[in-house]
């Protein structure tokens, strides 16, 4: 039973292989019907699944590049997008024909020939040309995004070295060998390339091997060095941040009593500097573990601006403390002065009261003196009284206030003669 099943399985596999071979032959016949006679003779018995020199060592493939454009260079994703023209040359002894002119074929005929496999995403822009000695020229246009490990420690005064690697995907070094057709001159188009923030300073090529678990694979590497243009960052970052630092120093020439003016300048410059720092980091990776040169510069500028604001707070606090101490000393001095003034006022008031009393006493004495008749040296003869007695003259009384003698005058109640 087991033998019967094995025989049935073998017959099924054999029948399937015959059908597959018949379908492939039919497909080749159908394709051969539209090919010119020369290509029909070349394609007769040609197996595209077998590489050239299948039993005689590896096939050598020469490559050259033409850089059409480098569209974008992203620091966030650390990659770049480039459009290049890749040209490959190899010799296939099965495609040798008589003549001295090459045959330019339609790009759709590439499917009929053996070609080197590259781990790239390609478009349908392809060219194939066969030379009489069996050399095949295969060119295609590639638009791809390639990783570029960047060192942003000196950003924006940095230089980046990016690479473009061409590597065999299906054949190892025992089957295929890659080489640059003209060395460093195999890559063209960089001299006329215009980039937004970079300039291409240098480029060179190298040949290496990629080592994996499945074997050693050929690899061609193209290196190019990019230098960042710093003029944009000078105008957009360095000059504004420097002017903000100078603007924060203007508050040093404003009086300490002008609190709104100094606070307005300090807070405005701090907020503007914060916005400038955030804007400078929008085109950079958010998660990184290295400090860039622009971060150091903006950090120093922010420290100066923040220090100017803190300086005003400290100066204002010291002024308030000094004012309080001076006010306390001044209050003590005023208290002592008040005590002294009170003593002086008390003395003056006591002297004034004594003087007032003396004046009142003198006034009273003057009034009393004015009410008495003054003494006179002249004698006045008065008529004799009825009693026959004669009045005696009174001695003169000196004036108390003036010291002068006034003549005596008879009083109103004196009897007339």
Task: Give the SSE map.
Elements: H1 2-32, H2 37-43, E1 59-74, E2 79-91, E3 103-105, E4 126-130, E5 135-147, E6 159-167, E7 176-180, E8 187-188, E9 198-212, E10 215-228, H3 231-249, H4 259-280, H5 293-371
Parallel strand pairs: 1-7, 1-8
Antiparallel strand pairs: 1-2, 2-5, 3-4, 4-5, 6-10, 9-10
Helix pairs in contact: 3-4, 3-5, 4-5
Transmembrane segments: 230-256, 263-284, 296-320
Biased composition (Polar residues): 399-417
InterPro entries: GABAA/Glycine_rcpt, Neur_chan_lig-bd, Neur_chan_lig-bd_sf, Neur_channel, Neuro-gated_channel_TM_sf, Neuro_actylchol_rec, Neurotrans-gated_channel_TM, Neurotransmitter_ion_chnl_CS
Describe the structure.
With 417 residues, the protein is α+β, with helices and mostly antiparallel strands. The chain has two domains: 30-229, Neurotransmitter-gated ion-channel ligand-binding domain (Acetylcholine Binding Protein, Chain: A, Distorted Sandwich); 233-329, Neurotransmitter-gated ion-channel transmembrane domain (Methane Monooxygenase Hydroxylase, Chain G, domain 1). The chain is 38% helix and 23% strand. The chain has helices spanning 2-32, 37-43, 231-249, 259-280, 293-371; strands at residues 59-74, 79-91, 103-105, 126-130, 135-147, 159-167, 176-180, 187-188, 198-212, 215-228. The strands form two sheets. Strands 1, 2, 3, 4, 5, 7 and 8 form a seven-stranded mixed sheet that branches. The chain has a three-stranded antiparallel sheet with strand order 6-10-9, with no helix packed on it. Strand 1 (59-74) and strand 2 form a beta hairpin. Helix 3 (231-249) runs antiparallel to helix 4 (259-280), helix 3 packs parallel to helix 5 (293-371) and helix 4 (259-280) packs antiparallel against helix 5 (293-371). The protein is rod-shaped. The chain starts with a helix and ends in a 46-residue tail after the last helix. The relative contact order is 0.07. Belongs to the ligand-gated ion channel (TC 1.A.9) family. Gamma-aminobutyric acid receptor (TC 1.A.9.5) subfamily. GABRP sub-subfamily. It is a multi-pass membrane protein. Residues 1-22 form the signal peptide. Keywords: Cell membrane, Chloride, Chloride channel, Disulfide bond, Glycoprotein, Ion channel, Ion transport, Membrane, Signal, Transmembrane, Transmembrane helix, Transport. Residues 365-376 have a biased composition (Low complexity).
